[in-house]
Amino acid sequence: MGMKKEIEVRITGRVQLVMFRDFVQRKSRTLFISGFVHNEDDGSVYIVAQGTEENLKKLIEHLHKGSFLSRVDGVSVVWREPTEAFSGFTIAY
């Protein structure tokens, strides 16, 4: 098991009301990634995720594809050192 990394991601496009948060949560859990996903007021989706670098890269690939009804226009990713520990992957409201 490699060292945990953390990414902060903002996704733009048609990514709200298309099961996007559920999609992110499902993919994160299968990749043993912890963190949260949140809908922003501007229509974007914000994610903080922790896991191995390899699994986070896989998650980023999934985020570019998006959920079935979504249209992903942009994915901005910032890599950083984890500052807090998350238990599981949650949808934050």
What would your notes on this structure say?
With 93 residues, the chain is α+β, with helices and mostly antiparallel strands. It has a single domain, classed as Alpha-Beta Plaits. Helices cover 26% and strands 40% of the residues. It has 2 helices and 5 strands; from the N terminus they run E-H-E-E-H-E-E. Strands 4-1-3-2-5 form a 5-stranded mixed beta sheet, covered by helices on one side. The radius of gyration is 12 Å and the shape is globular. The termini are far apart.
Helix content: 25-40%
Q: What is the first-to-last residue Cα distance?
A: 31 Å
Identify the quaternary structure here: single chain
Radius of gyration: 12 Å
Roughly what fraction of the amino acids lie in strands?
A: 35-45%
What strand order characterises the main sheet?
4-1-3-2-5
Q: Tell me which CATH architecture applies here.
A: 2-Layer Sandwich
Mean pLDDT, nearest integer? 96
Class of secondary structure makeup: alpha+beta
User: In total, how many domains does the architecture comprise?
Assistant: 1
Low confidence ranges: none
